[in-house]
């Protein structure tokens, strides 16, 4: 049982480049989330989805877009990367709104 | 303002000593409460959760937490810390007044000395 899988695990981008982070879960969870983790700030919600075909903005959505075309996948896109987006990105999923979150292992992104 | 506060940025305890990590929340109604642990280079893993009922909840790895409504607290405890417990610990809440996000505290990093 893989749980939540994120790809890639590491990436270095130049300012202005674009990329997509993929999150896949095999637990049939309805809810999926993208967070960024920065030192001393805990996890901040970027975008989330409450089901296939739905997306919504979280706490820090600027500069990011998401899509959830299939229930098991949640993609996070950076159209024009900026150094301020250097961070560790985590995907998570929950079965219900208040359920425990299952996390991927994270993607460490550096924008130079 | 609604918030989750972990007052201690880092804590150092000796192996075998007891541990208590503090968490306070500020919400109108009691939210759903969680503790997660993050080992270096890993994602977060659920330790335990509180929804309702018995205010002392047991989790994995020998951890427990006590919900105190009067203090708006949900502190994590372990009677005897092992070196493998060194990690970062996050308190989190899901408001029960709607919305779809888990609010995380800033985390407490635990160091264990031999």
- Following the backbone from N to C, one meets helices and strands of chain B in this order, namely EEEEEEEEEEEE
N-to-C CA distance of chain B: 40 Å
Helix count of chain B?
A: 0
- What oligomeric state is this? heterodimer
Largest sheet of chain B: 6 strands, mixed
Most extensive interface: pair and counts? A-B, 27 and 23 residues
Structural class of chain A: mainly beta
Rg from alpha-carbon coordinates of chain B: 14 Å
Q: With helices defined by DSSP (H or I, 4 residues minimum), what is the helix count of chain A? A: 0
Q: Could you give a short account of the major beta sheet of chain A?
A: 7 strands, mixed
Based on Cα principal axes, name the global outline of chain A: globular
Mean pLDDT of chain A: 94
Distance between the termini of chain A: 36 Å
Low-confidence stretches of chain B: none
Describe the protein.
- The complex is a heterodimer of chains A (112) and B (114).
- Chain A is built from no helices and eleven strands.
- Chain A has strands spanning 4-7, 10-13, 19-25, 31-37, 43-49, 56-57, 64-67, 73-78, 87-94, 102-103, 107-111.
- In chain A, the strands form two sheets. In chain A, strands 2, 4, 5, 6, 9, 10 and 11 form a seven-stranded mixed sheet that branches. In chain A, strands 1-3-8-7 form a four-stranded antiparallel sheet, with no helix packed on it.
- Chain A is globular, with a radius of gyration of 13 Å.
- In chain A, 36% of the residues are buried.
- The mean pLDDT of chain A is 94.
- By secondary structure, chain B is mostly beta strands.
- Chain B is 0% helix and 51% strand.
- In chain B, strand 7 (56-58) and strand 8 (64-68) form a beta hairpin.
- Chain A binds chain B through residues 4, 31, 33, 35, 40-45, 48, 50, 56, 58-59, 90, 92, 94, 97-98, 100-106, and chain B through 9, 32, 34, 36, 41-46, 49, 51, 90, 92, 94, 96, 100-102, 104-107.
